[in-house]
Amino acid sequence: MVKALIMMADYGHDPTETAVPYTAFRDAGFEVRFATEKGLSPLCDARMLEGITSLATSRSVKLKYASMIASHEWKNPLSWSAAEFDLQAFSLVFFPGGQDHSIRQLLDSEIVHKLLQEYFPTTRKPSANFIGAICHGVKVLADTNTDCGRSVLHGCITAVLPSLFEQAAFRLLRPFMDGDYCKVYGADSEDLEHAVQKKLEQKTHLKTSWSPLPFVVEDDQFNYVSGRCQADAQKLSERLVFAVQGGAHNEPESHESE
């Protein structure tokens, strides 16, 4: 049985970017686990489930979220800071994103970066290991450096949340929200698109789209599949399931789809 892992902070991940992959992996027959820093059961961003910001979360996703948080896996996560924890036990590792600053617990963790430093190279094609990321989940990969001091994504292609989307959400919600919601690193911080682009070998390796249609990017060297935002969650999840089940082991070129 395929073992899949969803890496999380204790609080703040986007419910769509968490529940949709979980449901797709579970329905594919994968054994799905969650991991938080200390093994505490996580919570997704409550503001995406209630109030004006909940409009970004569909009714079907809310039902998937309710099922997910009632699951044994959700209530009994692993601890990614435990000495015995090892990503190598999983064939698929997934990083959801979010809009709340609290997800920096995961994004900025040196422990997580070390785990990824060891795991990401094992996804080089035609490996049976896979990694997926969406929205700010891409940043934890971009910020993970190899022994050479370069990002593990240096030389890879990746999707990223467009600055246009990030700024639009921030400015649209600012009158209704306190603080710097939608700007994970603060109101004056650089946009995710720029932060990730700096870590890539070439500007052309960064792929994004302003289209409302799902947009998913597959790297041509590693079993790495990425998406921009909630709109991509379903297609990204389906693509990962397809790849893990053998559909992409021998594909020589990158796959970029809308």
TrEMBL record:
A Pfam family per the record: ThiJ_like
Protein name stated in the entry: ThiJ/PfpI family protein
Domain of life from the UniProt record: Eukaryota
SUPFAM superfamilies: Class I glutamine amidotransferase-like
PANTHER family in the record: SLR1854 PROTEIN
Organism field: Beauveria bassiana
InterPro entries in the record: Class_I_gatase-like, ThiJ-like
